[in-house]
Amino acid sequence: MDLKDLYRDVILDHNKRPRNFGRLDPCDSAADGSNPLCGDRLSVSLRMDGERVAEIMFEGKGCAISTASASLMTEAVKGLDVTAVNALHQLVHGTLTSSTDSPPPAGLGKLAALAGVREYPARVKCASLCWHTLEAALERRQSTVSTE
Amino acid sequence: MNDIVQPYDVEAIRRDFPVLSTTVRGKRLAFLDTAASSQRPLPVIEAVNHYERTSHANVHRGVYELSQKATDAFEGARERTRRFLNAASLREVIFTRGTTESINLVAQSWGRSTLRPGDEILITWMEHHANIVPWQMLCEQTGAVLRVAPIDLRGDLDLDAFRALLTPRTRIAAFTQVSNALGTVLPIAEMIAAARAAGALTLVDGAQAVAHRRVDVQAMDCDFYVFSGHKLYAPTGIGVLWAREAVLRTMPPWQGGGDMILSVSFNGTRYNELPYRFEAGTPNITGAVGLAAAMDYVDAIGLERINAHEQRLLERATTALLAVPGLRIIGESAHKAGVVSFTLEGVHPHDLGTILDAEGVAVRTGHHCAMPVMDFFDVPATARASFGCYSNDADLDQLIVALARAQEVFG
Fold first, then answer.
1. Which of A3, A14, A69, A125 would best serve as a mutation to test chain B binding (most B beta carbons within 10 A)?
2. What percent of chain B has pLDDT above 90?
3. Which fold would CATH assign to domain B3-40+302-410?
4. Helices and strands, counts by H and E, chain A
5. Taking the domain B45-299, which CATH number applies?
6. Is the pTM of this model over 0.90?
7. In angstroms, how far is the first alpha carbon of chain B from the final one?
8. What ipTM goes with this model?
9. DSSP letters along B222-252, please?
10. With an 8 Å Cβ cutoff, are A123 and B350 in contact?
11. Any chain A CB within 8 A of the CB of B78?
């Protein structure tokens, strides 16, 4: 197993230079998420245009997988409506937990860079934290979610 | 016996631990997570195996020979533990599931029956969650107050502050002998003396100490001493609460059930004598057998020699790690056990753990069940390398190479 399969250039780049990093103020909705096992914490804030994600930012402290996943997510969901965001979440979730034998599904775009996480079950929670937090923000639950 | 000091033959010791000759992801295994759980030597594996094959039945019950054999093995392990700790009496040696259960037993039996609102419990900032949460729960139940003695940036206890926090209301001071997150060896002799002078009982968490230094509970003069077997080369699920008999006699039973009673009727139940009063239900007989074998094992090598070996590794590791650019050691006390916690600039500990694993190096990454310590040093987590009797220079070399690999990946 090659480490480069997990730490692909896209991941390392988004870890070093996370996109949409910060907090939208004012925002229409925000949520905090944490992974108590490793201490990762992040928050997602949104501005909505009806059912569409008009703007999204995230901030927090985490490992490279968690930071890059959040950064890639903000790029991927900007402009999507809630139904499309949920569909993409399902696709990402399916990819992270799928068998390593199957190729990653189509339609992931740059998010396919996260496919290497499948080889490291202990790291799946790092990659999925941002998606759970986004889901919480979309449900306008102003609470902390946990991947534990 | 002769006086010739044999050199410490770490390679011979390594051959006693089958797991150390396995490979991980095609690489030699460098197991540097002994502080989380130690590996098991063949004599322990074989003692457990022998018991399971030849001697198992329930203890303290049957009149048949097999039950007697099991009882002898279990009570033999108690005597072995008494000797290991130099306890005054077998009545003071209680088998539990581990350190965590031992502390909960003390909190719920002694604490709940003794503490009044406003009474104080003193711990330190570098406790494992197992020596924090049971006291917090007890405070909620009794109205007692938890006080926390501070530490400094080197990872040492502020002993003056600890002394100042001892008041006439302090009923117990509970502290670790060795910090699992920082490696600090605490000045427990001074702490016990100060607590005793203030009229408080003392509980020493020996989880990180028993496999690395000789423990003599009578010389130590504490009231409770707790540890887990699995950090002493024994199986998981067995641990010990040693308590001074005079204190134990004041304590009500904690869990009720079989084995802890003399007679049961609906008009009332008579509790068993010490130590059985605190051992409800069928105990972990197999674990106790393994624990006794593990004590034989470390005593045959010599705890002082194991400690000297680990101290040499600690010095070498500290020097080598500090030479890694961007590496920061968390916990720089002058008195440390074989534990090195560190962070590497630009690489989150969680990523570091994955990369080290790919190189065959097993270290713990995370908060080490000591989140207040992480908060104090303002880090979300650290990587931690820890040593045991079998750790060698090759393990350290492999760690240093793997750290370079991590820096290469993260450029």
1. A3
2. 93
3. Aspartate Aminotransferase, domain 1 (3.90.1150)
4. 5, 4
5. 3.40.640.10
6. yes
7. 57
8. 0.86
9. -SEEEEEGGGTTS-TT-EEEEE-HHHHTTPP
10. yes
11. no
